[in-house]
Design brief:
Elements: H1 6-35, H2 56-64, E1 71-74, H3 84-91, E2 95-97, H4 105-118, E3 124-128, H5 155-161, H6 165-178, H7 195-200, H8 230-239, E4 248-252, H9 266-282, E5 288-292, H10 314-333
Parallel strand pairs: 1-2, 1-3, 3-4, 4-5
Length: 339
């Protein structure tokens, strides 16, 4: 019997390798879909309505679909210290924190879309806008990596996202976690009190630079943040899906006085124009209110109340939460909107 030629042998080996690779990839993908590593609800086979301790970027999938929370807080680290339990106590609405650090309007509006898909009639929504919302880029690009695939409507895009190495690691990690009797879980309401973490990093005390010790805030607008403001238009579009009776509160979180623009400057005018655009979009929803805390106040001059120019501490976060709750309650007390 003649031995196959080298070309024939190589061709057979290549076919076998391709078939094996496809089989392994298909097997992994089937396993990953079934395990649903971030409990997004796409597979209920191993869903427990929770995930192991992890960052908010991925934990938001299960939090955003949790039926226990009829109210949501959305934003980034500039609203993260607002405690959902404090809002719940003041409004009787169970809130979930869906804020994700280092995100802008593109990511946050996608998170809102995810939340609305699972809560089409929310009891209340709280959103936070900062200078990232003032971008003039209609793509609303992310500043940091973000798992857009995890919140995708397209199942193919979701499946492709599962093919990432870090996701494969989470698939393995979740299997081990599911097999444990005592499972540590990420907080269901999503609140992350990062104050202890900042304190460990030295963002307090005499050793750290004062929030206002850096260079003076320029009088000119930041590049690409002087208008137009496409995030406002996107906000109006998604608010059209929110029931008219749902209170929606938009917050401009506090910043240190040293980061505020000087009155009368082009930077101040650009910031005011951005706020006005967002306010106009918000006004398209009949039961809405804006809390502008991004302004000069006695507290904004107190270095002890800030970790840096844009991250305030709990003594600021708590009254801010109370003000948000009061706004929600005022909106709920308004007469019913005619159908």
């Amino acid at each position: 019997m003649r031995s196959p030629s080298p070309a024939t042998a190589w061709s057979a080996f290549a076919r076998t390798a391709v078939i094996a690779a496809v089989a392994i990839l298909s097997g992994y993908l089937a396993l990953a879909v079934a395990i649903d590593p971030y409990d997004s609800g796409r597979s209920r086979l191993f869903s427990v309505g929770a995930v192991r301790p992890q960052g908010p970027r991925t934990a938001l999938a299960v939090r955003g679909r949790d039926p226990a929370f009829s109210g949501a807080i959305l934003g980034n680290s500039h609203i993260q210290l607002v405690e959902p339990a404090r809002l719940a106590a003041a409004t009787s609405i169970p809130f979930v924190q869906l804020s994700v650090p280092a995100t802008g309007p593109g990511e946050q509006l996608l998170i809102l879309d995810w939340y609305l898909r699972h809560h089409p009639t929310p009891a209340a929504l709280v959103m936070a806008a900062d200078d990232f919302w003032c971008t003039d880029d209609p793509a609303l690009p992310p500043g940091k990596p973000f798992p857009f695939w995890l919140l995708e409507r397209d199942p193919v895009a979701y499946a492709l996202g599962l093919l990432r190495f870090n996701v494969a690691q989470e698939v393995v990690g979740r299997i081990g976690w599911l097999l444990r009797r005592a499972r540590p879980v990420a907080p269901a309401d999503g609140w992350w009190n990062y104050e202890p973490d900042y304190l460990k990093l030295g963002f307090a005390g005499d050793a750290r630079p004062a929030p206002g010790a850096g260079a003076a805030t320029p009088d000119t607008p930041e590049p690409h943040r002087a208008g137009p403001f496409p995030a406002a238009a996107r906000l109006a579009t998604i608010l059209a899906r929110v029931p008219a009776e749902t209170p929606v509160v938009m917050v401009f979180p506090p910043i240190h006085a040293s980061a505020l623009p000087r009155p009368g400057t082009r930077r101040a005018a650009a910031e005011q124009a951005c706020k006005a655009a967002i306010a106009a979009a918000l006004a398209s929803h009949p039961r809405s209110a804006m809390l502008d805390e991004r302004r000069d106040t006695p507290e904004s001059h107190d270095d002890a109340l800030f970790f840096d120019q844009s991250h305030y501490r709990l003594p600021v976060a708590r009254p801010l939460a109370d003000a948000i709750a009061a706004a929600v309650n005022r909106l709920r007390a308004r007469p019913a909107i005619p159908g």
